[in-house]
Protein 1
Amino acid sequence: MNKPFSQACENNKRPILDILSKVFSRSEHVLEIGSGTGQHAIFFGQHLPHLIWQTSDLAINHKGINAWLNESTAANVQRPIAIDLNDAWPESTHTNNQPFDALYTANTLHIISWPLVIKFFRGIADNLAYQASVCIYGPFNYQGQFTSESNANFDLWLKDRDQRSGIRDIEDILTLASSAGLSLIDDHDMPANNRLLVFSKA
Ligand SMILES: C[S@@+](CC[C@H](N)C(=O)[O-])C[C@H]1O[C@@H](n2cnc3c(N)ncnc32)[C@H](O)[C@@H]1O
């Protein structure tokens, strides 16, 4: 099959890697939620060989992620597991009964509905190890305001496609994160009006 391709992933992968290489320097086992095309997993896995990078997504995206994996030499990137945030995360998310000590997700929280954002943080609370590092990439609003006109237009486009989608308010995300035992370590300004939020789990 032709591999799925995201130009945005190509554009943002290096600035994201610069931060992940520091945040995940002592991590061992990363769970990615919503791996999408699989491009990020392949690239980060290649550049962070000390990590086991577990891809996941809805089953419908596994074929595309596997197509990237079939052409990759990154042995540390694992075949996708099915995680639908509507459901409990499967037991198989734990290797040797050790919970993941890191989590990465990009461009998912504005796609999924707000009840699923709540479940996402519940999943982190229930499944990740003590002191796990959590990185969340994407656009957010601050003090109820879009940070750019392009983000405001993107939000309209998202809602036109699915009323349940939309750029989230950072304050709401931080409240949920806190209730999941996450402390905000950094909030990085990223290209194209995105942010990379870094948390540590208590
Ligand atoms: C905009 S894409 C982002 C993909 C990739 N992370 C990226 O940055 O290009 C949103 C992702 O969220 C996933 N997704 C949507 N609904 C989901 C759900 N209920 N549970 C888990 N993932 C979901 C989609 O399948 C898709 O991979």
Protein 2
Amino acid sequence: MTDVKENGRAAIHQAVSSAVEKHGASRTELIPILIDINDALGYLPGEALEELGILLRVPQSQLFSVAGFYQMLTTKKRGKHVVQFCESAPCHVAGGQKVWEALLNALNLKTGETSADGQWTLLTTSCLGACGVGPVMMVDEDIFGNVTADQVTEILARYQ
Ligand code: FES
């Protein structure tokens, strides 16, 4: 029988060790180390920050505060697919509100929430650098421009 908890710990240990090995056990490398761990595990579990804190001699409170500051880092487990919606003014002016409402309806989530089935996380973001084709949304690494409310369901369906 597979011990899921033990496997989880092994994966965390592996992610922390390889990130520290790659960048060196130095506080100046904290951000790239955290990014690598986040990429490997999908988020930064408390156990990973605990282990990293010991290796780098950095208090956990500081690690949590760094993780909370950068949008690409998260201490909360995210869904299989992360939907980000640009809420900056140019996208808003281009009709973003209707797209946002369609997203809220389609996913039945609030900002920052993850669906109970672990499939989706919904986030808002500031400008994604594609203002000329607003409204803009991202699903995982894919960016969608000139999105209309009617297209939202079809876009999401590509990831199911
Ligand atoms: S304002 Fe939305 S991508 Fe720039």
